[in-house]
Model the fold of this input.
Amino acid sequence: MKEDKNALYFNRILNCLLGGETYTILQIAANVGLSEKTVRTKIDQMNRWLTQQDMGRIEKKQGTGIWLEMDERQWEDLQAYLARGKDLDSAVQPDDRRKQVIGKLLKLRSGQTTTLSQLADSLYLSAPTIGGLLREVSPWFEERSLKIVSIRSKGVILVGDEYNFRIAIKDYIIELMPEVMEALLGSYAPGIDISRVRRIVLEAENAWRIELADTSFKMVWIMACLSMARRRLGDKAVFSTREENIEHYNEYAFAESIYQRIEQAYGIKISGDDTVLLAVLLLSAKKLKNFSCLQDTDYARQYDRDLGKFVRLIIETIDSVLDIDLSEDQLLYDSLLLHMRSAIFRMKYSTATGDHISKYVKNEYKQTFLATWSTSNLFEEYYDVQVTEDELAGIALYIQAAIIRKKKGRPIRALLISERGMAASQLTSEMLKYSIPEITDIEAASCHDFRLSNYRDVDVIINTSGNEIRDERVVVLEGHLRDQGIEAVRQKVNQIFYFRKKQEFHFNSLCHQLFEADL
Done:
Protein backbone atom coordinates (compact mmCIF):
# COMPACT_ATOMS: atom_id res chain seq x y z
CA MET A 1 0.00 0.00 0.00
CA LYS A 2 2.87 2.33 0.88
CA GLU A 3 4.52 1.69 -2.51
CA ASP A 4 1.20 2.52 -4.25
CA LYS A 5 1.04 5.82 -2.36
CA ASN A 6 4.62 6.70 -3.25
CA ALA A 7 3.93 5.98 -6.91
CA LEU A 8 0.83 8.16 -6.69
CA TYR A 9 2.78 11.07 -5.16
CA PHE A 10 5.58 10.85 -7.72
CA ASN A 11 3.07 10.79 -10.58
CA ARG A 12 1.22 13.82 -9.15
CA ILE A 13 4.45 15.81 -8.88
CA LEU A 14 5.46 14.78 -12.39
CA ASN A 15 2.04 15.70 -13.82
CA CYS A 16 2.40 19.19 -12.34
CA LEU A 17 5.81 19.68 -13.94
CA LEU A 18 4.89 18.13 -17.31
CA GLY A 19 2.54 21.06 -17.89
CA GLY A 20 5.61 23.19 -18.54
CA GLU A 21 4.79 25.81 -15.91
CA THR A 22 6.82 27.03 -12.94
CA TYR A 23 5.69 26.05 -9.45
CA THR A 24 6.79 26.84 -5.93
CA ILE A 25 7.36 24.00 -3.47
CA LEU A 26 4.36 25.25 -1.51
CA GLN A 27 2.08 25.03 -4.60
CA ILE A 28 3.22 21.47 -5.40
CA ALA A 29 2.84 20.41 -1.77
CA ALA A 30 -0.75 21.69 -1.82
CA ASN A 31 -1.53 19.91 -5.11
CA VAL A 32 0.04 16.62 -4.04
CA GLY A 33 -1.14 16.60 -0.44
CA LEU A 34 2.31 16.34 1.23
CA SER A 35 4.45 18.51 3.44
CA GLU A 36 6.99 20.86 1.85
CA LYS A 37 9.83 18.83 3.43
CA THR A 38 8.62 15.56 1.86
CA VAL A 39 8.06 17.23 -1.52
CA ARG A 40 11.64 18.54 -1.54
CA THR A 41 12.95 15.02 -0.89
CA LYS A 42 10.86 13.49 -3.66
CA ILE A 43 11.80 16.24 -6.15
CA ASP A 44 15.52 15.71 -5.40
CA GLN A 45 15.11 11.97 -5.91
CA MET A 46 13.16 12.48 -9.12
CA ASN A 47 15.72 14.97 -10.48
CA ARG A 48 18.62 12.57 -9.93
CA TRP A 49 16.74 9.80 -11.71
CA LEU A 50 15.79 12.03 -14.66
CA THR A 51 19.42 13.16 -15.01
CA GLN A 52 20.75 9.59 -14.89
CA GLN A 53 18.27 8.46 -17.55
CA ASP A 54 18.90 11.55 -19.73
CA MET A 55 15.19 12.41 -19.63
CA GLY A 56 15.62 16.04 -18.65
CA ARG A 57 16.17 17.77 -15.30
CA ILE A 58 14.30 19.81 -12.72
CA GLU A 59 15.58 23.40 -12.60
CA LYS A 60 15.34 25.60 -9.51
CA LYS A 61 15.62 29.36 -9.13
CA GLN A 62 15.48 31.23 -5.85
CA GLY A 63 12.36 33.38 -5.62
CA THR A 64 10.87 31.92 -8.81
CA GLY A 65 10.24 28.21 -8.30
CA ILE A 66 10.96 24.95 -10.08
CA TRP A 67 10.21 23.68 -13.56
CA LEU A 68 10.98 20.72 -15.81
CA GLU A 69 13.67 21.33 -18.45
CA MET A 70 13.73 18.83 -21.36
CA ASP A 71 13.90 18.71 -25.15
CA GLU A 72 11.46 16.95 -27.45
CA ARG A 73 13.41 13.69 -27.54
CA GLN A 74 13.68 13.53 -23.74
CA TRP A 75 9.93 14.27 -23.42
CA GLU A 76 9.14 11.39 -25.82
CA ASP A 77 11.47 9.02 -23.90
CA LEU A 78 9.75 9.85 -20.61
CA GLN A 79 6.28 9.39 -22.12
CA ALA A 80 7.36 6.01 -23.56
CA TYR A 81 8.71 4.97 -20.14
CA LEU A 82 5.43 5.83 -18.42
CA ALA A 83 3.41 4.21 -21.22
CA ARG A 84 5.10 0.89 -20.46
CA GLY A 85 3.39 0.93 -17.08
CA LYS A 86 6.52 2.02 -15.21
CA ASP A 87 6.28 4.23 -12.15
CA LEU A 88 8.96 6.51 -10.75
CA ASP A 89 8.74 5.11 -7.22
CA SER A 90 10.70 1.96 -8.09
CA ALA A 91 13.25 4.05 -9.96
CA VAL A 92 14.10 6.61 -7.28
CA GLN A 93 13.65 4.59 -4.09
CA PRO A 94 15.10 3.20 -1.94
CA ASP A 95 18.51 2.93 -3.57
CA ASP A 96 18.69 6.69 -4.02
CA ARG A 97 18.14 7.23 -0.31
CA ARG A 98 20.92 4.79 0.57
CA LYS A 99 23.32 6.70 -1.65
CA GLN A 100 22.36 9.94 0.08
CA VAL A 101 23.07 8.46 3.51
CA ILE A 102 26.44 7.07 2.39
CA GLY A 103 27.40 10.46 0.98
CA LYS A 104 26.46 12.27 4.20
CA LEU A 105 28.44 9.87 6.40
CA LEU A 106 31.55 10.14 4.22
CA LYS A 107 31.54 13.91 4.71
CA LEU A 108 31.97 13.48 8.46
CA ARG A 109 35.43 14.37 9.67
CA SER A 110 37.38 11.74 11.59
CA GLY A 111 35.87 11.51 15.07
CA GLN A 112 32.88 13.73 14.22
CA THR A 113 29.44 12.51 15.34
CA THR A 114 26.03 13.24 13.91
CA THR A 115 22.56 12.49 15.26
CA LEU A 116 19.71 10.71 13.55
CA SER A 117 17.73 13.96 13.74
CA GLN A 118 20.50 15.89 11.96
CA LEU A 119 20.70 13.28 9.21
CA ALA A 120 16.90 13.18 8.95
CA ASP A 121 16.64 16.98 8.65
CA SER A 122 19.40 17.20 6.02
CA LEU A 123 17.72 14.52 3.88
CA TYR A 124 14.10 15.51 4.57
CA LEU A 125 13.36 12.10 6.09
CA SER A 126 12.09 10.84 9.44
CA ALA A 127 14.46 9.61 12.15
CA PRO A 128 13.08 6.01 12.04
CA THR A 129 13.63 5.95 8.26
CA ILE A 130 17.23 7.10 8.75
CA GLY A 131 17.75 4.36 11.35
CA GLY A 132 16.63 1.73 8.86
CA LEU A 133 18.82 3.18 6.11
CA LEU A 134 21.88 3.12 8.38
CA ARG A 135 21.40 -0.60 8.88
CA GLU A 136 21.05 -1.08 5.12
CA VAL A 137 24.25 0.81 4.20
CA SER A 138 26.36 -0.68 7.01
CA PRO A 139 27.59 -3.64 4.86
CA TRP A 140 28.82 -1.22 2.17
CA PHE A 141 31.07 0.49 4.71
CA GLU A 142 32.20 -2.79 6.27
CA GLU A 143 33.41 -4.00 2.85
CA ARG A 144 35.77 -1.01 2.94
CA SER A 145 36.89 -1.56 6.56
CA LEU A 146 34.73 1.27 7.92
CA LYS A 147 32.11 0.86 10.61
CA ILE A 148 29.05 2.86 11.68
CA VAL A 149 29.12 3.05 15.49
CA SER A 150 26.33 4.41 17.71
CA ILE A 151 27.38 6.40 20.79
CA ARG A 152 24.76 6.91 23.48
CA SER A 153 23.66 10.52 23.94
CA LYS A 154 25.90 11.65 21.07
CA GLY A 155 24.75 9.96 17.86
CA VAL A 156 26.57 7.94 15.22
CA ILE A 157 30.18 8.05 14.08
CA LEU A 158 32.03 6.49 11.15
CA VAL A 159 35.11 4.65 12.40
CA GLY A 160 38.08 3.61 10.27
CA ASP A 161 41.54 4.54 9.07
CA GLU A 162 42.28 7.47 6.81
CA TYR A 163 43.15 5.41 3.74
CA ASN A 164 39.85 3.50 4.10
CA PHE A 165 37.99 6.82 4.09
CA ARG A 166 39.75 7.75 0.85
CA ILE A 167 39.02 4.40 -0.79
CA ALA A 168 35.36 4.69 0.24
CA ILE A 169 35.07 8.24 -1.12
CA LYS A 170 36.67 7.12 -4.39
CA ASP A 171 34.26 4.16 -4.67
CA TYR A 172 31.26 6.32 -3.80
CA ILE A 173 32.06 8.88 -6.49
CA ILE A 174 33.08 6.45 -9.26
CA GLU A 175 30.71 3.55 -8.63
CA LEU A 176 27.62 5.04 -7.02
CA MET A 177 27.49 8.62 -8.32
CA PRO A 178 29.45 8.80 -11.61
CA GLU A 179 26.96 11.15 -13.25
CA VAL A 180 27.76 13.96 -10.78
CA MET A 181 31.43 13.13 -10.24
CA GLU A 182 32.90 16.61 -10.63
CA ALA A 183 30.35 18.23 -8.34
CA LEU A 184 30.91 15.57 -5.67
CA LEU A 185 34.69 15.75 -5.97
CA GLY A 186 34.51 19.48 -5.36
CA SER A 187 32.49 18.89 -2.19
CA TYR A 188 34.85 16.19 -0.84
CA ALA A 189 37.94 18.25 -1.70
CA PRO A 190 36.78 21.75 -0.69
CA GLY A 191 39.09 24.60 -1.56
CA ILE A 192 40.95 22.53 -4.18
CA ASP A 193 40.98 23.62 -7.81
CA ILE A 194 40.00 20.20 -9.16
CA SER A 195 40.27 21.37 -12.79
CA ARG A 196 43.89 22.39 -12.21
CA VAL A 197 44.65 19.01 -10.63
CA ARG A 198 43.06 17.31 -13.64
CA ARG A 199 45.39 19.26 -15.94
CA ILE A 200 48.38 18.17 -13.83
CA VAL A 201 47.39 14.51 -14.23
CA LEU A 202 47.03 15.04 -17.98
CA GLU A 203 50.49 16.66 -18.10
CA ALA A 204 51.96 13.63 -16.33
CA GLU A 205 50.21 11.35 -18.81
CA ASN A 206 51.66 13.25 -21.75
CA ALA A 207 55.15 13.34 -20.22
CA TRP A 208 55.05 9.55 -19.75
CA ARG A 209 53.40 9.06 -23.15
CA ILE A 210 50.70 6.91 -21.61
CA GLU A 211 46.91 6.96 -21.62
CA LEU A 212 45.03 5.83 -18.54
CA ALA A 213 41.72 4.05 -18.96
CA ASP A 214 38.76 6.26 -18.05
CA THR A 215 38.19 4.62 -14.64
CA SER A 216 41.90 4.70 -13.81
CA PHE A 217 42.15 8.38 -14.78
CA LYS A 218 39.20 9.27 -12.56
CA MET A 219 40.70 7.27 -9.71
CA VAL A 220 44.05 9.08 -10.03
CA TRP A 221 42.30 12.46 -10.23
CA ILE A 222 40.18 11.76 -7.15
CA MET A 223 43.05 10.42 -5.04
CA ALA A 224 45.26 13.39 -5.95
CA CYS A 225 42.53 15.86 -4.93
CA LEU A 226 41.90 13.99 -1.67
CA SER A 227 45.63 13.94 -0.88
CA MET A 228 45.65 17.72 -1.10
CA ALA A 229 42.36 18.35 0.70
CA ARG A 230 42.67 15.87 3.57
CA ARG A 231 46.25 16.81 4.45
CA ARG A 232 44.63 19.79 6.17
CA LEU A 233 43.20 17.39 8.73
CA GLY A 234 46.68 17.17 10.27
CA ASP A 235 47.57 14.09 12.29
CA LYS A 236 44.16 12.53 11.68
CA ALA A 237 44.95 12.22 7.96
CA VAL A 238 48.29 10.50 8.53
CA PHE A 239 48.50 6.83 7.68
CA SER A 240 51.38 4.44 7.25
CA THR A 241 51.93 1.54 4.88
CA ARG A 242 53.99 -1.62 4.94
CA GLU A 243 54.66 -1.74 1.22
CA GLU A 244 58.38 -2.24 0.64
CA ASN A 245 58.78 -3.36 -2.97
CA ILE A 246 56.40 -0.89 -4.58
CA GLU A 247 59.17 1.60 -5.40
CA HIS A 248 60.57 -0.81 -8.00
CA TYR A 249 57.48 -0.44 -10.20
CA ASN A 250 56.68 2.08 -12.92
CA GLU A 251 53.33 2.64 -11.25
CA TYR A 252 55.14 4.12 -8.24
CA ALA A 253 57.35 6.34 -10.40
CA PHE A 254 54.26 7.57 -12.29
CA ALA A 255 52.36 8.32 -9.06
CA GLU A 256 55.44 10.06 -7.68
CA SER A 257 55.70 12.24 -10.79
CA ILE A 258 52.10 13.40 -10.32
CA TYR A 259 52.65 14.40 -6.70
CA GLN A 260 55.95 16.09 -7.55
CA ARG A 261 54.10 18.24 -10.09
CA ILE A 262 51.43 19.06 -7.50
CA GLU A 263 54.06 19.96 -4.89
CA GLN A 264 55.82 22.23 -7.37
CA ALA A 265 52.58 23.89 -8.52
CA TYR A 266 51.16 24.49 -5.02
CA GLY A 267 54.31 24.75 -2.91
CA ILE A 268 53.13 22.00 -0.54
CA LYS A 269 54.48 18.67 0.70
CA ILE A 270 52.57 15.44 0.02
CA SER A 271 53.22 12.42 2.23
CA GLY A 272 55.12 9.51 0.70
CA ASP A 273 52.31 7.23 1.88
CA ASP A 274 49.96 9.03 -0.52
CA THR A 275 52.29 8.05 -3.35
CA VAL A 276 52.34 4.44 -2.18
CA LEU A 277 48.54 4.29 -1.97
CA LEU A 278 48.11 5.67 -5.49
CA ALA A 279 50.79 3.31 -6.84
CA VAL A 280 49.11 0.29 -5.26
CA LEU A 281 45.76 1.29 -6.77
CA LEU A 282 47.39 1.55 -10.19
CA LEU A 283 49.25 -1.71 -9.68
CA SER A 284 46.10 -3.57 -8.66
CA ALA A 285 43.95 -1.94 -11.35
CA LYS A 286 41.93 -5.13 -11.95
CA LYS A 287 41.23 -5.40 -8.21
CA LEU A 288 40.01 -1.86 -7.58
CA LYS A 289 36.55 -2.96 -6.44
CA ASN A 290 38.03 -5.45 -3.99
CA PHE A 291 40.66 -3.10 -2.61
CA SER A 292 39.85 -2.26 1.00
CA CYS A 293 42.75 -1.99 3.39
CA LEU A 294 46.32 -1.21 2.47
CA GLN A 295 47.65 -2.97 5.55
CA ASP A 296 45.70 -6.20 5.09
CA THR A 297 48.04 -7.41 2.35
CA ASP A 298 51.45 -6.45 1.08
CA TYR A 299 50.24 -5.82 -2.47
CA ALA A 300 53.70 -5.25 -3.96
CA ARG A 301 55.04 -8.55 -2.64
CA GLN A 302 51.90 -10.40 -3.64
CA TYR A 303 52.09 -8.82 -7.09
CA ASP A 304 55.75 -9.87 -7.32
CA ARG A 305 54.88 -13.43 -6.32
CA ASP A 306 52.13 -13.56 -8.94
CA LEU A 307 54.44 -12.01 -11.52
CA GLY A 308 57.13 -14.58 -10.69
CA LYS A 309 54.66 -17.41 -11.29
CA PHE A 310 53.62 -15.77 -14.54
CA VAL A 311 57.25 -15.52 -15.72
CA ARG A 312 57.77 -19.21 -14.89
CA LEU A 313 54.65 -20.02 -16.91
CA ILE A 314 55.96 -18.00 -19.87
CA ILE A 315 59.29 -19.86 -19.76
CA GLU A 316 57.57 -23.26 -19.45
CA THR A 317 55.28 -22.50 -22.40
CA ILE A 318 58.18 -21.46 -24.61
CA ASP A 319 60.18 -24.50 -23.44
CA SER A 320 57.42 -26.82 -24.60
CA VAL A 321 57.22 -25.15 -28.01
CA LEU A 322 60.98 -25.12 -28.63
CA ASP A 323 61.57 -28.48 -26.91
CA ILE A 324 64.34 -27.01 -24.75
CA ASP A 325 64.70 -26.73 -20.97
CA LEU A 326 65.45 -23.19 -19.77
CA SER A 327 63.83 -23.62 -16.36
CA GLU A 328 67.19 -23.65 -14.54
CA ASP A 329 68.45 -20.44 -16.14
CA GLN A 330 68.28 -18.04 -13.20
CA LEU A 331 69.59 -15.14 -15.27
CA LEU A 332 66.70 -15.58 -17.70
CA TYR A 333 64.17 -15.65 -14.87
CA ASP A 334 65.61 -12.57 -13.12
CA SER A 335 65.90 -10.63 -16.38
CA LEU A 336 62.34 -11.42 -17.47
CA LEU A 337 60.95 -10.60 -14.01
CA LEU A 338 62.57 -7.17 -14.14
CA HIS A 339 61.49 -6.64 -17.74
CA MET A 340 57.86 -7.65 -17.10
CA ARG A 341 57.37 -5.02 -14.40
CA SER A 342 57.75 -2.21 -16.91
CA ALA A 343 56.37 -4.18 -19.88
CA ILE A 344 52.96 -4.77 -18.28
CA PHE A 345 52.79 -1.09 -17.31
CA ARG A 346 53.45 -0.16 -20.95
CA MET A 347 50.84 -2.63 -22.19
CA LYS A 348 48.26 -1.21 -19.79
CA TYR A 349 48.80 2.47 -20.39
CA SER A 350 51.40 3.39 -23.01
CA THR A 351 50.46 5.16 -26.22
CA ALA A 352 54.06 5.40 -27.46
CA THR A 353 54.90 3.62 -30.67
CA GLY A 354 57.36 0.75 -30.41
CA ASP A 355 60.89 0.74 -31.75
CA HIS A 356 59.89 -1.84 -34.39
CA ILE A 357 62.60 -4.25 -33.30
CA SER A 358 60.09 -7.03 -34.01
CA LYS A 359 61.00 -6.90 -37.72
CA TYR A 360 64.62 -7.68 -36.93
CA VAL A 361 63.79 -10.39 -34.37
CA LYS A 362 61.31 -12.11 -36.69
CA ASN A 363 63.98 -12.29 -39.39
CA GLU A 364 66.95 -13.28 -37.24
CA TYR A 365 65.26 -15.48 -34.59
CA LYS A 366 62.09 -16.66 -36.31
CA GLN A 367 61.50 -19.82 -34.25
CA THR A 368 62.13 -18.05 -30.95
CA PHE A 369 59.74 -15.26 -31.88
CA LEU A 370 56.99 -17.71 -32.89
CA ALA A 371 57.43 -19.59 -29.62
CA THR A 372 57.16 -16.32 -27.69
CA TRP A 373 54.09 -15.33 -29.72
CA SER A 374 52.39 -18.50 -28.43
CA THR A 375 52.27 -16.86 -24.96
CA SER A 376 50.12 -13.91 -26.16
CA ASN A 377 46.90 -15.32 -24.73
CA LEU A 378 48.51 -15.63 -21.29
CA PHE A 379 48.97 -11.85 -21.06
CA GLU A 380 45.30 -11.30 -21.78
CA GLU A 381 44.21 -14.05 -19.39
CA TYR A 382 46.38 -13.02 -16.42
CA TYR A 383 46.70 -9.24 -16.84
CA ASP A 384 43.91 -8.30 -19.24
CA VAL A 385 46.35 -6.61 -21.66
CA GLN A 386 47.00 -6.95 -25.37
CA VAL A 387 50.67 -7.66 -25.99
CA THR A 388 52.25 -5.99 -29.03
CA GLU A 389 54.75 -7.54 -31.44
CA ASP A 390 57.50 -5.24 -30.16
CA GLU A 391 56.91 -6.38 -26.58
CA LEU A 392 57.02 -10.01 -27.73
CA ALA A 393 60.22 -9.29 -29.63
CA GLY A 394 61.82 -7.91 -26.47
CA ILE A 395 60.91 -11.07 -24.55
CA ALA A 396 62.12 -13.21 -27.46
CA LEU A 397 65.57 -11.64 -27.19
CA TYR A 398 65.84 -12.69 -23.54
CA ILE A 399 64.83 -16.22 -24.57
CA GLN A 400 67.32 -16.23 -27.43
CA ALA A 401 70.12 -15.14 -25.09
CA ALA A 402 69.23 -18.05 -22.78
CA ILE A 403 69.28 -20.48 -25.71
CA ILE A 404 72.71 -19.22 -26.73
CA ARG A 405 73.99 -19.59 -23.18
CA LYS A 406 72.71 -23.15 -23.06
CA LYS A 407 74.20 -24.12 -26.42
CA LYS A 408 77.44 -22.15 -26.38
CA GLY A 409 78.35 -21.98 -22.74
CA ARG A 410 79.67 -18.83 -21.11
CA PRO A 411 77.95 -15.63 -22.35
CA ILE A 412 79.82 -12.62 -23.71
CA ARG A 413 81.08 -9.91 -21.37
CA ALA A 414 81.78 -6.53 -22.91
CA LEU A 415 83.43 -3.24 -21.94
CA LEU A 416 82.25 0.13 -23.28
CA ILE A 417 84.84 2.92 -23.34
CA SER A 418 83.41 6.38 -23.86
CA GLU A 419 84.20 10.03 -23.28
CA ARG A 420 80.48 10.85 -23.08
CA GLY A 421 78.43 10.98 -19.89
CA MET A 422 77.07 8.07 -17.85
CA ALA A 423 73.55 8.49 -19.22
CA ALA A 424 74.72 8.25 -22.85
CA SER A 425 76.91 5.24 -22.03
CA GLN A 426 74.02 3.48 -20.29
CA LEU A 427 71.75 4.10 -23.29
CA THR A 428 74.37 2.66 -25.68
CA SER A 429 74.85 -0.38 -23.41
CA GLU A 430 71.12 -1.11 -23.23
CA MET A 431 70.74 -0.77 -27.00
CA LEU A 432 73.60 -3.23 -27.58
CA LYS A 433 72.24 -5.77 -25.08
CA TYR A 434 68.77 -5.39 -26.56
CA SER A 435 70.02 -5.98 -30.12
CA ILE A 436 72.65 -8.67 -29.39
CA PRO A 437 71.28 -11.21 -26.89
CA GLU A 438 74.64 -12.99 -26.69
CA ILE A 439 75.94 -10.03 -24.65
CA THR A 440 74.59 -10.21 -21.10
CA ASP A 441 76.87 -7.76 -19.31
CA ILE A 442 78.41 -4.46 -20.46
CA GLU A 443 80.66 -2.54 -18.11
CA ALA A 444 81.21 1.15 -18.80
CA ALA A 445 84.53 2.95 -18.33
CA SER A 446 85.69 6.49 -18.94
CA CYS A 447 88.50 6.92 -21.45
CA HIS A 448 90.46 8.80 -18.73
CA ASP A 449 90.25 5.91 -16.26
CA PHE A 450 90.75 3.07 -18.74
CA ARG A 451 93.72 0.73 -18.21
CA LEU A 452 93.87 -2.28 -20.51
CA SER A 453 95.56 -4.37 -17.83
CA ASN A 454 92.44 -4.08 -15.62
CA TYR A 455 90.16 -5.72 -18.18
CA ARG A 456 91.85 -8.96 -19.21
CA ASP A 457 88.68 -11.01 -18.57
CA VAL A 458 86.27 -9.16 -20.89
CA ASP A 459 85.51 -10.65 -24.32
CA VAL A 460 84.78 -7.50 -26.34
CA ILE A 461 86.02 -3.93 -25.92
CA ILE A 462 83.71 -1.41 -27.58
CA ASN A 463 85.67 1.81 -28.09
CA THR A 464 83.69 5.02 -28.77
CA SER A 465 86.27 7.37 -27.24
CA GLY A 466 88.27 8.12 -30.39
CA ASN A 467 91.50 7.10 -28.66
CA GLU A 468 93.55 4.29 -30.21
CA ILE A 469 93.58 1.00 -28.25
CA ARG A 470 95.65 -1.84 -29.61
CA ASP A 471 93.93 -5.12 -28.78
CA GLU A 472 92.34 -7.85 -30.91
CA ARG A 473 89.14 -7.61 -28.81
CA VAL A 474 88.48 -3.98 -29.77
CA VAL A 475 85.56 -2.86 -31.94
CA VAL A 476 85.74 0.85 -32.85
CA LEU A 477 82.46 2.77 -33.06
CA GLU A 478 82.29 6.38 -34.20
CA GLY A 479 79.68 8.87 -33.00
CA HIS A 480 76.21 7.68 -32.00
CA LEU A 481 75.32 4.00 -32.12
CA ARG A 482 73.84 3.07 -35.48
CA ASP A 483 72.93 -0.13 -37.31
CA GLN A 484 76.45 -0.39 -38.76
CA GLY A 485 77.98 -0.23 -35.30
CA ILE A 486 75.63 -2.87 -33.93
CA GLU A 487 76.47 -5.12 -36.87
CA ALA A 488 80.22 -4.67 -36.25
CA VAL A 489 79.82 -5.73 -32.62
CA ARG A 490 77.66 -8.68 -33.68
CA GLN A 491 80.35 -9.89 -36.09
CA LYS A 492 82.96 -9.71 -33.34
CA VAL A 493 80.70 -11.76 -31.04
CA ASN A 494 80.16 -14.39 -33.75
CA GLN A 495 83.92 -14.53 -34.25
CA ILE A 496 84.48 -15.14 -30.53
CA PHE A 497 81.99 -18.02 -30.50
CA TYR A 498 83.58 -19.50 -33.61
CA PHE A 499 87.04 -19.63 -32.04
CA ARG A 500 85.64 -20.93 -28.76
CA LYS A 501 84.07 -23.82 -30.60
CA LYS A 502 87.30 -24.44 -32.53
CA GLN A 503 89.34 -24.52 -29.32
CA GLU A 504 86.95 -27.01 -27.74
CA PHE A 505 87.62 -29.57 -30.51
CA HIS A 506 89.96 -32.44 -29.55
CA PHE A 507 91.16 -35.50 -31.48
CA ASN A 508 90.27 -38.90 -30.14
CA SER A 509 93.31 -40.48 -28.50
CA LEU A 510 93.34 -43.19 -31.17
CA CYS A 511 94.10 -40.57 -33.81
CA HIS A 512 97.50 -39.83 -32.25
CA GLN A 513 98.72 -43.26 -33.32
CA LEU A 514 98.57 -42.09 -36.93
CA PHE A 515 101.17 -39.32 -36.44
CA GLU A 516 104.81 -39.16 -35.56
CA ALA A 517 105.45 -37.40 -32.28
CA ASP A 518 108.07 -35.13 -33.89
CA LEU A 519 105.48 -33.89 -36.41
The first helix runs from residue 2 to 18.
